[in-house]
């Protein structure tokens, strides 16, 4: 009888240990599946699909800090493009300058006002002069905030008889602002000033 009781007790312990083991394995498996499901859901939320020319292109979301240098350079580039790209058409000039002034503070508006007061834009229209800008290098310091930048580019002034190529060097700072349709990168240029704007060469047009 005692042997039978001992056998029953041993069997009960084994069953209990087996049951506990099964529960632990199930718990670990459940936690692993939950973690993997959460990880998969997070990854899928960072994916977006863009439809371009009838094709679905996959894109991934990224933290803003990972894109600051790229977005900052493009912001500076586009500001200079809009501010310095002009044709002898008051609507083109107005549209480009409006876009540029959304990307900068009063320091850019002050330069615009000075040029306007000196009759610069009127002379472009009356003289049938176009102006283009090509970025050479854009340096951004993201170690300190607001972010310092220096822009170097070539400015071409196309007159009816000549093409003047000028060097352009400017500097300023970038601070974060809210993104909008008028300011897609969410930066604002501050303390913008021109360091150099000198003639490099003059070519006669054929």
SSE string, helix = H, strand = E? HEEHHHHEEEE
Give me the count of strands. 6
- Give the domain tally: 2
Detail the poorly predicted runs.
Answer: none
Name the overall outline: rod-shaped
Measured distance between first and last alpha carbons: 120 Å
Mean pLDDT reading? 86
Relative strand content: 25-35%
Count of alpha and pi helical runs: 5
Name of the top-level CATH class of the largest domain: Alpha Beta
CATH topology of the largest domain: Nuclear Transport Factor 2, Chain: A
Note the quaternary state here.
single chain
Q: What would you report as the Rg, rounded to the nearest angstrom?
A: 32 Å
Q: What's the CATH superfamily of the largest domain, by name?
A: VirB8 protein
How does CATH name the architecture of the largest domain?
Answer: Roll
State the helical fraction: 40-55%
> Structural class of the secondary structure composition?
alpha+beta
Summarize the topology.
Elements: H1 2-45, E1 47-52, E2 55-60, H2 64-84, H3 90-102, H4 106-117, H5 120-126, E3 130-141, E4 147-158, E5 162-176, E6 187-204
Antiparallel strand pairs: 1-2, 3-4, 4-5, 5-6
Can you give a write-up of this model?
The protein is α+β, with helices and mostly antiparallel strands and 206 residues long. The protein folds into 2 domains: 2-48; 64-204, VirB8 protein (Nuclear Transport Factor 2, Chain: A), CATH 3.10.450.230. Helices cover 47% and strands 33% of the residues. It is built from 5 helices and 6 strands; from the N terminus they run αββααααββββ. The strands form 2 sheets. A 4-stranded antiparallel β-sheet has the order 3-4-5-6, with helices on one face. Strands 1-2 form a two-stranded antiparallel sheet. A hairpin with a 5-residue loop joins β3 and β4 (147-158). The longest helix has 44 residues, at 2-45. It is rod-shaped and about 110 Å long. The protein starts with a helix and ends with a strand.
